[in-house]
Amino acid sequence: MFTKLINKIKGKDAPKVKTPEIMGLRMGASFELDPLAIRLILDELTIESCSPNQIIKAAGVVELDGTWIYRFYTDDDAWLQVIAEGGQRDEHVVDVKLFHFYDTLDVGSEQAWNKLLKSDIGAPSYHLQDRSYSRVWTAAGDYHNPVHMAEKTYDEDGDYSVTDQFTMLFERELSDQQTESLFLSAEEKEEDAGYLSRSLVISTGITLTPSQITIHG
Questions:
Q1: Is 64 in a helix, a strand, or coil?
Q2: Residue 12: burial class (beta carbons within 10 Å; 0-12, 13-18, 19+)
Q3: Ordered per-residue pLDDT tens for the chain, 217 residues
Q4: Is 129 helix (H, G, I), strand (E, B) or coil?
Q5: Neighbours of 81 (CB within 10 A)
Q6: Residues 202, 103 contacting (CB under 8 angstroms)
Q7: What is the pTM of this model?
């Protein structure tokens, strides 16, 4: 940020920051959803509405041993997740999901944080409203330790932050063999003031097929 300010004062253009990009999705781009596909299942979903046209306001990426997880945050309080395996080209994409934020809960103590990570987030099932979701990721025992991800997230100015996320994925069945996903992320971030903020971010989402999304670069 300070480098940008100094360059601006000197009349120089700041070097362009390379932000996450795949499938034509990038900062400032937009995408359009098939409104009929959403409308057919909307009554079964946790969300009450979903904008068919969304603009990407921030972008993040996670690297996990040859798997890249791209996240594009939109103006609809949503985020589009694209998973690529074995490479970072379009042909490596294996999954696309659209999530909407449901809630963010502050974790105010070390005891509550440890309980969340060691006994809550990786349980076999999770209940939200009156709906029950089953854990997708399997484990030898009843409990699955959360999967750690370090996401580097860029905003529209090219500035970035890194968030440690301890995650778990659940899902429940809908009609026509579709599912609604539930993504839990216990997040830990060092704030500018030097302290750690901790929260549980809850999102629900659906899997998209290529015919259900049109990307506008």
A1: strand
A2: exposed
A3: 434 444 444 455 556 788 999 999 999 999 999 999 999 999 999 999 999 999 999 999 999 999 999 999 999 999 999 999 999 999 999 999 999 999 999 999 999 999 999 999 999 999 999 999 999 999 888 999 999 999 999 999 989 999 999 999 999 999 888 999 999 999 998 887 878 899 999 999 999 998 899 999 7
A4: coil
A5: 21
A6: yes
A7: 0.90
